[in-house]
Write a structure and sequence with these properties.
The chain has 161 residues and is mostly helical. Helices cover 33% and strands 2% of the residues. The protein has 7 helices and 2 strands; from the N terminus they run αααααββαα. A two-stranded antiparallel ribbon has the order 1-2. α2 crosses α3. The longest helix has 12 residues. About 28% of the residues have low confidence. The structure holds a DNA duplex (11 and 10 nucleotides). This is GcrA family cell cycle regulator. It holds the Pfam family GcrA.
DNA sequence: CCCTGATTCGC
DNA sequence: GCGAATCAGG
């Protein structure tokens, strides 16, 4: 876009008339963004903006918007590997001991003892957790919970009968 | 979805 | 300097 004195004057005129940026863009056959960008550069009086970017949400320093980039966008595997955790996280109080149960994070020492995934508490509440005790070989639950989980076909038949 | 204006930042 | 992309609110 070539901003001649004339187009700048037209922009200023339409701007002071209170036309929307998109409308000015239509009249000048340019994009709304071009209008806003130029108006900003010319220090034209700002319009009432629907956006509140100042006070009110100072707590959150908005993460930078994703940027267009012109080369390869995937990092190499080598670049990624240093990010691999070398230690498992410490157990959290009030939570099942997942480390002891075998969820030791990323590790190379197989096999692991899987943690019992029997749900305890109300899902969606803060206290909800899984049992986490070592589970039976080949089963998702520990001994006591496997007892509850697996109902023998024999028993069910007797119930029905 | 449509609209609005403001800001960022690759070009 | 330019303006598309993006944001954020109506």
């Amino acid at each position: 876009m070539e901003w001649t004195d004339e187009t700048i004057d037209r922009l200023k005129g339409l701007w002071t008339e209170g036309l929307s940026t998109a409308e000015i863009g239509r009249r000048l056959n340019i994009s709304k963004n071009a209008v806003v960008g130029k108006a900003h550069r010319l220090d034209l009086p700002a319009r009432p903006s629907p956006i509140r970017r100042d006070a009110g949400m100072a707590a959150r320093p908005r993460p930078p918007a994703p940027r267009r980039v012109s080369g390869p966008t995937l990092p190499s595997f080598a670049a990624l590997s240093p990010a691999m955790p070398s230690r498992p996280a410490a157990p959290v109080a009030g939570r099942p001991n997942l480390v002891a149960a075998g969820f030791s994070g990323i590790t190379r020492t197989a096999p692991r003892t899987p943690a019992c995934c029997w749900p305890i508490g109300e899902p969606g509440t803060p206290s909800f957790r899984f049992c986490g005790d070592p589970s039976l070989a080949g089963k998702p639950y520990c001994g006591p919970h496997a007892e509850i989980a697996y109902v023998r076909v024999r028993d069910r038949r007797e119930d029905v009968a």
